[in-house]
Amino acid sequence: MKDGEKSFDELIRILPLRLFRVLSALAPQIKQDTYEIRLRQDKAVALVGAYGICFPYGQGCYSKISCENTPVVTAREIQELVYRFCDGSVYAHQHQINEGYMTYGNGYRVGMAGTAVHDGDRIKSVRDITSLNLRIVKEIPYAGLEIANKIFSDGLCSAVLIGAPMTGKTTVLRSLAGILSSAPYFYRTVLADEREELGSAHGITIDVLRAYRKTEAIERAVRSLSPQIMVCDELCNEEECEAVLKSMNNGVDFLLSVHCADKKQFLRRPLCRRLVKSACFDWFILLRGVGEPPVYYKGEDLLDEMDRRTADTAGVGRGGEVLSFQNDPTDRPA
Q1: d(CA 172, CA 145)
Q2: Is the pTM of this model over 0.90?
Q3: Which 8-state DSSP code applies to residue 256?
Q4: Tens digits of per-residue pLDDT, 128-140?
């Protein structure tokens, strides 16, 4: 049994019996190629994967369009599943629920949609949950081997993985963490596993900080675990970026991931541009999905490209006259 099929079968055991029977009867290849199981109240069960989207029904059947035989998820089933994912204690998982997800079992992430209850500027709780998005974990220990061989051949470095959702960023990060903390590298590796999706990485010289916010994990790791390299998934905001760059000034290398579909989109986003401008990252690696080779960009090349764009745009006035060809001095760190 392949890893994806095994993960699929493991995850669906928590589902109500009538849904379990439909999904368990699917062909092994469909299970292997599935990325997500989407359950929406009063809507048909949907699977998302390498094949696109499909709707299962009967005994091993599926359709590209929803049909009357596709099981429809009830409000009660959604409610029961939330309690199962919480092991019966919603209160203990309230922080995750407020963030829009839960983590279940061996790193399975369950995205959620419902109605937020606010207390001032913060979300106090989420009620009337109507959608659950079950993400399939795929353990592929050597998914990051090609990247490791290319960028770490001359020693430690820092890199950012770029990719749209479901292009394998988390899988590759988990693999790289295991590779770098094992022979022949044995780097002191720390995982900032905020959403508890990376902690199943196998390695010898690896430490895992689970459920800490990334800023908290980075601060504690630098203070007490003396990492050579830290691994963080889904860099989201300026506060996290600031914590990363501050720690890099203290000699820690980083492996990060960010959501972007391509290089053009990456260079348009202020947070991503700041990572390039810092000149701290040696590599930016675009993941394009299963079966597609990654695209490698050297940090210095992206920085030069940004410098050229700044020179091309900053020196032209509204009427097209040339004002200056000087680059913005803040583009590069002092």
Answers
A1: 9
A2: no
A3: E
A4: 999 999 998 877 7
